[in-house]
Amino acid sequence: MRRSYFLLPAAVLSALLTAALFLYGCGDDDHGKKRTTDDAAFTPAVKVSAVRRGESRNVQRLIARVKPFKSVRLTARVSGFITERCFKEGGFVKSGDTLFRIEADTYEIALEQARAELARLEAESENAGLEYNRTAKLYEEQVAAVKRFDDARAAQAAAAAAVLQARAAVRQAELNLGYTEIKAPFDGWIGLVEIDAGNYVQAPAGPLATLNCIDTVRVEFNLPDSMLTPEISGLIASGAKPPFSVRIELPDGGGPVGEYPVECWNNAIGVSTSTITMQAVADNPGHRMLPGAYATVAVSADKPESVLLLDAAALRRMQNMTFVYIVNSENKLELRAVEVGLEENGSVQVISGVAENERAVLAGNPRLRDGENVRIIQ
Question: Of the residues 51, 157, 320, 357, which has the maximum number of CB atoms within 10 A of its CB?
Fold first, then answer.
């Protein structure tokens, strides 16, 4: 991501820096004698590095947010008193582990009643079937009236329907009893308990706690629409992965995590931000990335572009100003305010302020002034 700077005119910047260096005592030598650029004995020796042209993949450095790969807020699906919490808050649980238990006595009784009702109705259905068979035989022999035959057939159908209803009630009672144990749907990291054991919960009640899968995480960032070429826009609109390479880095010097492709993205560009939300799915060994934490992502485009590169050791900063010293053809220093982009492998992309093949002074000599003669050493 390109950094924006308020750039002062070179003359003003030079005057400010010269004054600052003078206040720090950099204008005199060790014997108190004023230096002059005409005195060869005091001509500073400097090392330089040439501004060179290279290739960059239009890397954007963006702030990202870490999210769990999967997350669930555990909810009670039946009402009752919580009798037990079966995990340690902040611990890791396995898929299928029981996390909460709700008092089950009421639901066990309800299941027994449903099974008893099913048995009664199955007996009635069997009897209705026998009655229908007898009546059908008599009807064939023209002994039973039509109404008696119709009544027997309707009674058999009603009894069969009642059995189906009773079986559904048994199934519901079994489900309700099963819901008295709240289990982990996947391996994950569980948080703090919202409701302690001994409390009554009214279904649907939640969340009781939150379970996050963090062995794998989503790293979410907002990509500027300037990186969405027509080709890339067409790819993501068709459901294909965009050709972006995302390098993830931890904040505060936490170090690199790795390089991952973009796996998920939103279906619209934000009107107020002109960005599209994307996610890279990253392995998280050692759980270095925690949900809610910030990270930095370097998003590089598919095709490289030609850029100017400068040795990062040539950059100098004072407050919010970034500048370099350039040695001109007369071996005199020229102070240049620069705008820089991404720094990588000891080189920094220069957006403005210097030209190709110009010689930039490397760090090592703090006593330098704009317009001063210098000697170049290897």
Answer: 51
